[in-house]
Amino acid sequence: MASYRAPLRDMRFVLYELMNGESLASLPGYEEFTRDLIDPILEEAAKVCEQVLHPLNRSGDEEGCTLENGEVRTPKGFREAYTTFREGGWTAIACDPTYGGQGLPKSVNVLVEEMICAANLSFGMYPGLSHGAYVSVHGHGDDALKDLYLPKLVDGTWAGTMCLTEPHCGTDLGLLRTKAQPRGDGSYSLTGTKIFISAGEHDLTENIVHLVLARLPDAPKGIKGISLFLVPKFIPNPDGSLGARNGVSCGAIEHKMGIKASATCVMNFDDAQGWLVGEPHKGMRAMFAMMNTERLSVGIQGLGLAEASYQGAVTYARERLQGRALTGAKHPDKPADPLLVHPDVRRMLLIQRATNEGCRALAAWTAHQLDLQNHHPDPAVRQEAEDFVALMTPIVKALMTDLGFEATNLGVQVFGGHGYIREHGMEQYVRDCRIAQIYEGTNGIQALDLVGRKLAANAGRSLRRFFHPVSAFLEAKGEDEAMAELVQPLAKAFVRLQQATAQVARAGLANPDEAGAAATDYLRLFGLVALGYLWARMAEVALAHEGDDPDGFYRAKVATARFYMDKILPQTGALFSSLMAGAGSVMGFEEEAF
Amino acid sequence: MASYRAPLRDMRFVLYELMNGESLASLPGYEEFTRDLIDPILEEAAKVCEQVLHPLNRSGDEEGCTLENGEVRTPKGFREAYTTFREGGWTAIACDPTYGGQGLPKSVNVLVEEMICAANLSFGMYPGLSHGAYVSVHGHGDDALKDLYLPKLVDGTWAGTMCLTEPHCGTDLGLLRTKAQPRGDGSYSLTGTKIFISAGEHDLTENIVHLVLARLPDAPKGIKGISLFLVPKFIPNPDGSLGARNGVSCGAIEHKMGIKASATCVMNFDDAQGWLVGEPHKGMRAMFAMMNTERLSVGIQGLGLAEASYQGAVTYARERLQGRALTGAKHPDKPADPLLVHPDVRRMLLIQRATNEGCRALAAWTAHQLDLQNHHPDPAVRQEAEDFVALMTPIVKALMTDLGFEATNLGVQVFGGHGYIREHGMEQYVRDCRIAQIYEGTNGIQALDLVGRKLAANAGRSLRRFFHPVSAFLEAKGEDEAMAELVQPLAKAFVRLQQATAQVARAGLANPDEAGAAATDYLRLFGLVALGYLWARMAEVALAHEGDDPDGFYRAKVATARFYMDKILPQTGALFSSLMAGAGSVMGFEEEAF
Fold first, then answer.
1. Domain A8-65+72-135 has CATH 1.10.540.10
2. CATH code for the part of the protein at B8-140
């Protein structure tokens, strides 16, 4: 199996050199997060991911989860790994210190998340879902709920889930049917069936806290009649010890394409006792707070898997001797040259590299803005950051999972037939990554969110949070000769994005189907321009290190930026043409003719 | 599980209306293949694929093959299905009547192949490999070998394999080590290990005939020292009855991402008796004859799976109610509108449709030329057809499997979370399709074949077999107003292809790495232009049926052509830019920096 090493050098680059991570400590609440605290955290995270989680990735995929008498057994080694993970404090890093968390900046946490996803995405699902539940309760629960549940979710002795989907509704939650009846004691009785519940049942923790969307008896129809409830597997006593088993059970687990070691459960709620989280009928709002952080995390899943795939592919391309360089043998002493001499193999590896490092920078930028949104003393700065994060969330989710899927497939392709064999683990990255394009809102839904909500939000104010820095950068660098080969293609792509934005806004206003048909092209165009901007900025940082670059790290940055501009950014032209062609051929096709 | 219906209407369209299939009967040897013979063959093939093969597709994937004491058991039902298939004469359709075959034109056979791949690719591998062995023996074996083996391969009582790959060499067969020693009786003793041998061992037939690449003792090094041998599992007596077990055995079967019901074997040859096929040291030539037909077949695998995926996705998009049309509820009486109202869902379905029907036309065109190559009385026509087929083979293989993989993934995406669940069969199409981009020469190798061999072949004569008809068509349609919306984008893309061709030829001559780095972009650019040309031609045929189109078939053709030009062909612009940027950023990246 391909091994995984956390790309700490590049992580430190985006954190400290691109995003000025050392300034984090100047934000209220982050005072202690200086570099000498952050660096050891990253190194420890790398260790646990490389040594504890990654060795279970392949075996977890082979074994999968099993359901017997309503109990789910995770694959061999997962329980022990979870204990190590929990005892190491990793469930607590991104949580509020009030409840035992470590309050790690998001800028650092995204890096840890990437390592976990790269090492073992299935494993990462369990603490990931717990964190989603934590966010919902922390953001919307009352003090009693918070005091009782949060310390356990934070220290990882209890896990959590998000129960949204039902058999007849996924994207369209307005259709959901699960019912909540008041029990007269301030709690509710929930009845209904939820599907696709990740970590719905498992053997990693003593209790599982379900966050469940359901309808109260007086609920308005549709999306405005949904409330959020907390339903524990075991009802805790006031002291936190476990009380009675609640009426919630796992009816089945799904057999899936990938993330096989993550239990995806059908959950039956049968007169289960639950507590309201937030206000009645305002469940979607509470859920969206959670969903936005989750969407960033899902984007990072794509990146993590793509990074793991890249590492495997590079190792193979160095070791596998096959064929000779087109320009003549490079290693005449060996029976053949390594794959790495072949231009088409390099092309694949460089696509992986350029999209991975670009996405890492994009995640870092978004996380940095999240830190500003949550911790900056100036409300104007907080607002700007919030606008930026809202705008970029669908892009991070969809772009990074689409590019991640493409990258994991390139990793298989570099391996040839050996990539298709399960043994090497390369095809697992593809299967595991595929779900990330679907869950937490399909990538098509992300695109609609971008064109339908985010573009128009606050009269385009959000949009300016991206457009302004790019414009300013292009202006500042217009005369910079060393940067010209990067700035010129970026400027061209940026014009396309500006024109496409105007077109989508104008045409979409007249006919929403125009925006709908353009959405996916537009999101990718936007995302590729964002990566282009980040590549230009990374190259700018790297160019300042000429002559001070013993291991060639900065030279490689500039070279990858060049590759991105040459070989990937041109896609924006095709996306622009497709988008400008409008919705006619999409909507004009007769329904019966499909 | 999604059901599959053979797309007979569209198959007849490409065969008779686009490619003038009724003229086949004017070719010597094809006299009997008039429409009233062909149509029932297609209908019977559809029946066996829909009713016998497709019902075993999902169960075959779940169960896979098992190896016990050197014997491979295929999944439940495969033996019975194979008997039905064989008794129906389906193993014989594309074979020489001299040996019991039915001599079906390739133009018809590709359609049957598509149905088999769509219905059950794993099953199709067994007769598919047998046919590869048949082609090799038929083309290069002496009369004794042909008389003894071909009737059994044709009637399907024996199966065949192609044994090329070894653990240390796949693409680079020059490295292979399997040895063949003369035994003094005209036969040879083979010793060595082959891997990735599809259908290497199974329980469908009483005997298996391995076609094996090996080295004779006096063989020159590398690719010019490889000979082809026939090694049967049981050595037949002169009357065709089975004699002694030969020294060939299955050491292991691979656990793979997909095509799990197809046994992929490690085959050990231990003093196995074999017979030379063709001349000593000329094995690669014999193998390439087989490989070229196989490459077309692999392209068709991509198409078949993509068609099956499209059908599943359309059915789901009609049935699944989720959300409301962006322009207001289309079915206010129902709890939600069907997915089909959503522009982004339509976009995905139309990409599938446009690439599938385009690829079907491309396969039909190539098959038609193969029929001319093999049966036309005029040697000049035969030569032209041969040039065309040689040129298009790598494009058919790589383009159709790449587009097929993209299409099967879109099928999953239309299903959302339900697509990721094994139950619906949509994710299986993705896993099964993934291998088609790899085997019979990875798609990167196809691209190198195109730019390295086919472009330059015969001073560009092959190239003109494609360029001339496209030029002529564009010229003829330049003033046709009804066609303008299709012809104009095609003309633009064709100019890109011409310029890219000149660039690849020129730069590649100076530096082979330039051609190597451009190869994948170039192949796709070429392929998309080819589909664009075929879409314009299909629309031309369809437009002639205005007012004579009761079920809207022709209207849908024109509408799909429009979609192709609007939304897919623009990719040629991005490919052109990437290609014109040259190899600098690919080859300039330092080896150590990966």
1. yes
2. 1.10.540.10
